[in-house]
Structure formats: C-alpha cells, structure tokens
C-alpha cells in the first residue's frame, strides 16, 4: 500500500503538479495529492500504533511480573507445523523467524533480542519429521537437533517442547509419546512443554486443559517427567504479552531449581550405547 501510493506520486510530472492543463486540473491534482498523503499518513500511523501497542503490552506485563534480568538461552523443539518459528517470534516480540503453515525451518537458526531488559537468545530447529511414518530418518532428525546445542554453548537454559494442541492426543502418530520415549532424562529436567495454537483449545478440547491432561496417559507422563511444567501460547495474539511473561516466569523458576546450570551435554536423545553423554565445550 505504501509503495503503491509513493509510486503513483512519483509518476506525476512536475509540470502537471505545478501548472496542470487548467485551473480545474490543478485543483484535481492537489485534491488527489492530499488524499494520497492522508492515506499514507493513516497507514503509517496504524503501523506505528501497532508497534506502540505491543510495547505498551510488554510494559504492562513486566510491571506485574517478577522476571529475572539474567540472559536466557532457549532451544525450540517440535514436529513439523507445531508452530516453533511463530513461538520464537512471539517471545522476541518481532518477526525474525520465517513462520508459515508449512515447514520452513530447514536448518538451525539463531535469533536474539533484548526482551524485558534481558537478552533472550532463541535457536529454532528443523521440525522433526514424524518418526512413526519416516522411521529411517530418526538419526537425521537427531543430528539436526543436536547442532542447535553447538550453537548454544555453553548450553541452553531451557528446551521448549512445542506441541500443537491438535497433536496432544493423536493415537496413531503421537508426538507426546515419542518425546517421552526418546528425550534423555537430564534434558527433561530442562524442558517446558509448550502447547501452541491455544486459540483452538475450546474447539478441540471440551474441558479445561488441566483436566484433559489428567485423562491422557502419555501427555500426563511427559509433563510429569518435565516437573509438571507446561504452558499454552496463542501466537495469533501477539499483543497479549501476559502469556509471554508467564512463560518466562516458569522458565526462570525451572532455571533456579537447576541452580542456574544450563544443559551441557552434546545430545538430548537417549542412546543405547552411551548413557553418560558428553558435555558441551
């Protein structure tokens, strides 16, 4: 819209703007220029107000929170289309990861920003291909994810295990069960389960999420393995910064319980031939 208005203005000949073919033409040109200028100003004010609304929301959320000022390193994990990239954008308060309804993250990507007076670094990982369908690519999945650990040296403080609400109780291809069976124990001690697409909760689950969790064995087991830590996030409501501060508070509490110690092993998946793991240098 802005580009179209500017281009239209550029195409006007200076002579037409100054003189026109007649007094009537001059009036029309002036009226059109004023209208286009008003459109441009209105659009620019709208964009500025949107940015201002986000910052005001962040300020209000911070005023009612008790967030740490320590830098935070986050790694996003999840299957395809779970909303990892959109989650990174919501937390950082800006569009730095490319997010869409189809998978776009094909390699580990790192972005960071100062959020609530602290530097938050986020590593977005390629979406895991469903291992129940693509069993032969399990090792490929793991190597992609573990590259993110090298980018997070001396190690991430938290893994956000991103699961779309629609994937919570899929019986035949259950991402919840897969993570429960494959994540290394100490990795679970550094993990928060993040349920995305929260705007669909009411449509897909006809009861409060905490009650629903109690009924789904695999989901309850996974969350219990993560110390009972879970959170819901609506990436369609970016101005609701309260949901972000609540998530960060849960992460800060977990980091404190871990004595501020980041995850330092070079793998997060269980190994049959090696249970000791190696620390990130």
TrEMBL record:
Domain AIG1-type G: 69-272
Source organism superkingdom: Eukaryota
Compartments in which it is found: Cytoplasm, Cytosol; Endoplasmic reticulum; Golgi apparatus; Mitochondrion
Any one Gene Ontology cellular component term annotated for this protein: Golgi apparatus
Positions of the UniProt region annotated as Disordered: 1-28
InterPro entries recorded: G_AIG1, GIMA/IAN/Toc, P-loop_NTPase
Compositional bias of kind Basic and acidic residues: 13-28
Keywords noted in UniProt: Cytoplasm, Endoplasmic reticulum, Golgi apparatus, GTP-binding, Mitochondrion, Nucleotide-binding, Repeat
Keyword Endoplasmic reticulum set for record: yes
A GO molecular-function annotation: GTP binding
Family, similarity comment: Belongs to the TRAFAC class TrmE-Era-EngA-EngB-Septin-like GTPase superfamily. AIG1/Toc34/Toc159-like paraseptin GTPase family. IAN subfamily.
General function of this protein: Exerts an anti-apoptotic effect in the immune system and is involved in responses to infections.
Protein name per UniProt: GTPase IMAP family member 8
């Amino acid at each position: 819209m802005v580009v179209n208005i500017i281009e239209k203005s550029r195409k006007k000949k200076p002579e037409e703007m100054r003189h026109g073919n007649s007094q009537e033409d001059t009036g029309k040109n002036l009226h059109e220029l004023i209208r286009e200028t008003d459109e441009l100003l209105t659009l620019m004010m709208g964009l500025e107000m949107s940015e201002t609304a986000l910052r005001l929301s962040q300020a209000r959320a911070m005023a009612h929170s008790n967030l740490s000022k320590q830098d935070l390193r986050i790694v996003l994990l999840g299957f395809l289309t779970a909303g990892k990239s959109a989650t990174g954008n919501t937390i950082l308060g800006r569009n730095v990861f490319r997010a869409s309804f189809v998978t776009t993250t094909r390699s580990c990507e790192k972005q960071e920003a100062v959020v609530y007076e602290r530097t938050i670094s986020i590593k977005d990982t390629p979406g895991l291909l469903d291992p129940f369908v693509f069993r032969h690519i399990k090792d490929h999945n793991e190597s992609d994810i573990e590259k993110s650990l090298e980018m997070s040296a001396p190690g991430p403080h938290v893994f956000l295990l991103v699961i779309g609400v629609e994937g919570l109780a899929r019986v035949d291809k259950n991402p919840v069960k897969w993570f429960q069976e494959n994540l290394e124990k100490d990795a679970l001690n550094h993990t928060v389960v993040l349920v995305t697409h929260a705007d669909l909760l009411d449509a897909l689950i006809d009861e409060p999420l905490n009650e629903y969790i109690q009924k789904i064995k695999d989901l309850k087991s996974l969350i219990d393995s993560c110390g009972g830590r879970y959170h819901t996030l609506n990436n369609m409501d970016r101005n609701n910064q309260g949901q972000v501060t609540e998530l960060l508070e849960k992460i800060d509490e977990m980091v404190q319980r871990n004595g501020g110690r980041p995850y330092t092993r070079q793998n997060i998946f269980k190994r049959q031939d090696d249970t000791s793991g190696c620390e990130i240098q």
